[in-house]
From TrEMBL:
Domain of life, per lineage: Eukaryota
Stored Pfam families: HTH_animal, RVT_1
Xref: PROSITE patterns: RT_POL
Protein name: Reverse transcriptase domain-containing protein
Transmembrane spans: none
Species in which this protein is naturally found: Trichuris suis (pig whipworm)
InterPro entries: HTH_animal (IPR058912), RT_dom (IPR000477)
PANTHER family for this protein: REVERSE TRANSCRIPTASE (PTHR21301), REVERSE TRANSCRIPTASE DOMAIN-CONTAINING PROTEIN (PTHR21301:SF10)
Domain Reverse transcriptase: residue ranges: 1-171
Amino acid sequence: MVTLGPSDMLVSYDVKDLFTSIPMDVTLNALEKRLDKDSTLSQQTSLRAFHVKKLVSFCMKEANYVQFGEQCFTQNSGAPMGSSLSPVQTEVFMEHLEQIAFSTSNGSIVPVLFERYVDDVFAITKSGEDGAFLNHLNSRFPTCISFTIEKEEDGRLPFLDALVIREGDRLKMTVYRKLTHSDSGMVERARAICDEEFLAKELGHIKTTFFSNGYPAALISSAITHATAQRRNMCHVWLFHYSYCPITMV
């Protein structure tokens, strides 16, 4: 449970174009160092950290090309989109960046809370220090990595699929729906994200949406009742499955 102070501010940081921007040589070196420190590596492979690095380097650099028409082009920076190695490499780099950022920062600008999901960061900073920490992040790899910032407005901050709401010294959450949202929200998402006081309203929205798209009211109510009767436990996910029901126009 996070307890907010009067000078705390909710912010989110986001990396622009993360996959195609990471410095690959830095990332490969960070990968090798991590593997060198991994005491279980010898139990997983006969390869040494150096050999793994060389293989990953080949996949990320030498073998990173695309054919367009009659010409072949190589990608000279960042990680290739679509490669199964790219998410792993970007995570290695982001963890490396975090270690550098926190170990070299002035203690007064370090966020009270710093939680990251891939390239999206939710943070609680001291008022007035949010910009200083942004500048510090952007100064680590200034030629390729750029963070942007979004600050809370009226005690509210959207982060991923959630709207984080500040009430006194506590944080509450409900589903965040963008203006361009297609109204395809699901029961499980609402149940996992919403605080109790917002859950009924969100489930009502879901019920109205499915009903307006031709689903039988009894089926909708049954599915929602079944989902909400289960314990709200993030470790055991229940999926609300539904079938496409075309509406015949007379």
